[in-house]
Amino acid sequence: MTTPSPRGASNKATNLVWHKASINRSAIASQRGHRSAVLWFTGLSGSGKSTLANAVNARLFKDGVASYVLDGDNVRHGLCKDLGFSDEDREENIRRIGEIAKLFVDAGVIVLTAFVSPFRSDRNKARKLVASEDFLEIHCAADLNICEERDPKGLYSKARAGQIKDFTGISSPYEKPLSPELELDTGNEEINACVETVFNKLLYLKIIP
């Protein structure tokens, strides 16, 4: 019986060839009437990332735009269920999401990712996977006190009690974006106003008509 190699072991296949798709992004964009892109929502737990991403997604759907939300919790139920919350696992989690987001872009879809993604280096790696004009970092900049007051999952209370280790904002750092494409005060601004701000950005960049 062969013992599976641990994650990260140097057993990479060497006989791989990249196959070009028969239909390219330009053709897809021409048919659908909009470009594809990554909308990378980042912020503390409880900052409103998932809420905003899903609200923007609903608006895109209403306008006939092909889009999809990759939510942090949902992804950890499947693709990343083998990962914990150590710095190493957080890095691998975001690496996988970045690669998936790249595939969505190639498929002509606007992909909205809602992840804490606390480290700048990991977000920058995800950005570099696609063209510069295809990546929008959106900082949901709700203050820690507001996020902790909301605490929709009861995570901050558990982290304060020492029941959750490596919790971002409490026992693990969050590195704020230095120059995001958008920074939204999701702690005080109404959700509809935030959605409009995102949409205006997409219109300005001519990602959507």
Q: What labels describe this entry?
A:
209 residues, alpha/beta, Rossmann fold, five-stranded parallel β-sheet, 8 helices, 12% strand, disordered N terminus
Query: What's the helix-strand series?
Result: HEHEHHEHEHHEH
Largest sheet: 5 strands, parallel
* Structural domain tally: 1
Question: What is the CATH H-level superfamily?
Answer: P-loop containing nucleotide triphosphate hydrolases
Q: In CATH's first tier, which class applies?
A: Alpha Beta
How much β-strand is present in the residues? 5-15%
Shape: globular
Number of strands: 5
- Count helical runs: 8
Oligomer: single chain
Q: pLDDT average, as an integer?
A: 91
Task: Give the C-alpha Rg.
Answer: 18 Å
Q: Which strand order do you get reading across the main beta sheet? A: 2-3-1-4-5
Question: CATH topology, anyone?
Answer: Rossmann fold
Give the N-terminus to C-terminus distance in angstroms.
56 Å
CATH architecture: 3-Layer(aba) Sandwich
Share in helix: 25-40%
Runs in which pLDDT lies below 50 for 5 or more consecutive residues are 1-5
Secondary structure category: alpha/beta
